[in-house]
Model the fold of this input.
Amino acid sequence: MDFLRDPIAFFTQWLQTTLLGWGLAEPAAQVVGFAIGAFMAATGAMLFVTVLIWAERKLIGRIQDRYGPNRVGPFGIFQSIADLVKIFIKEHIDPVGMDWLPFNLAPVLSVAAVLTMWVAIPFAVTIYGVDFNVGLLYLVAVGGLGELAIIMAGWGSNNKYALLGAFRAVGMFISYEVPMVITLLIPVMLTGSLSMNEIVRQQEVWYIVVSPLAALIFFITQVAEVGRSPFDLTEAESELVSGFNVEYSGLKFGMFYVADFLHAFTISLLFSALFLGGWRGPGAAEIPILGFIYFAIKSSLVYFLVILMRGSLPRFRVDHMMDFNWKLLTPISLVLVILTALALKLMAGLSLWVQIPVLLVLNGLVFVLAQQMITGFFRRRRPREVGDRSRPVARYSPPQSDAGSQG
Amino acid sequence: MTPMQITFILIAALTLVSAVMAVTARRMMHAALWLIATLMGVAMIFATLQASFFAVVQVMVYVGAIAILILFAIMLTRRSTLEADQASLGRGWIINALAAVGVFAALVTAVWAWPAADTVLTELSRDAEQLAGLGQIIADPNGYAVPFEVSSVLLVAVLVGAIYLAVERKPQHGGRQ
Done:
């Protein structure tokens, strides 16, 4: 019964007693336990990617009015496994003039940067890697290592398209980190802690209800951090071939692919942990496995939204992308953080039912103001039209009348 | 040796080796990558000292921002990426080495003379209290509020200066007058 209620803790307990029974010292047993846990989590995450890829291809297919993978296995569910086998046996091609160490380290670092984020995410009451007291900062810091991997890939490939793609990608990622970190301050202020476990535990009311604008900005910046459509100009085919990973083949390319999909799911995990209450739900505190299921459902919904955006939104132009970040998201998030901090300080002693409506009204005000300013901004900036609108080539010519043809 | 000491020796060796490689590497790009390895090593030392906040900030600020900026600067200056076989150490390397040794000796003697250097490290309890204390002392007028604000003013001045240097000056239109 205990196994069904909380399998991970049960397994850990069993492993510890077994190892201690074999005569291992307490710290050594803990090290072995952590190593097995990390290995299982990493392998599980990598295998989970095959399901993610299948689901995404299937959904994108439906959005684009086609079937998606449907040949290998029921509903094409084994398609990713077939692709995996193919990518394993593909040849590795080393480009001429490459830089060996950065070129080969980049794919590994790219996956590692995403997988190490999973350490600090609480999946349920008892299911988490480590409860850092600086968990949120850790997630931001580790997420930054992925940019390093991209720059190493772009540099090591000795290819100008790869280098330009890496520039563009990293330029976008570090820009969007600014509003992301600023909006992350809002859950931290509401909780009073940087620990992910604490943030989830204290969400009596989901933070998306308390601060919907912060949730929206965080979601947008996270999609940009993954480089998904509409922010997929890092791999604009017509401009950069395919971005920083042009020169990669076989399993090395596969690693970037895995990192991409895993990162897309990881941002869904982060969003649901920070703004959708994480594992919280009826009975989740007593029965951890139930919390795990709630968390999985919430994250899958967010992931579905990410896929929906990918399937339906066109690509940003590079200057629009930068304008959007620096002229819109960053100022809004700064104003929002300052207002939220002031409001929380002024209402320090009041009950939750007073605080939440006030914060909601604040969010709404900031949103409406931003909306007004954007419309004004773009109305003024409309480009001047040069020349005649009705060009001779495209001009509609009415059918010739009988009288005209005779004349 | 305790496991902690073994860990420390490994991390210190990694940090020192990559620091030496950062100085002696023949390509600017490799030097920058070794510098990142050094910074990661310093972050790991912070982590072994239970200063989790500084470890994370080290990675976030130095590796995530400053190192990326250094890489950008190197890649945008064409000469440094193309010339593979530059002499890594210039002519005055003896003077540089002497200066480095001098600074190191001064640091060591200063730390030696500092009475607090003899304190035996104690295991901290892992809770968020230390972090809150850090935040309060930075915002406290009797603590470090003034140095903190002064450093932020300095950063703003640097930002304004950078924007002034980088801004594209548009030629004045004749018809405006």
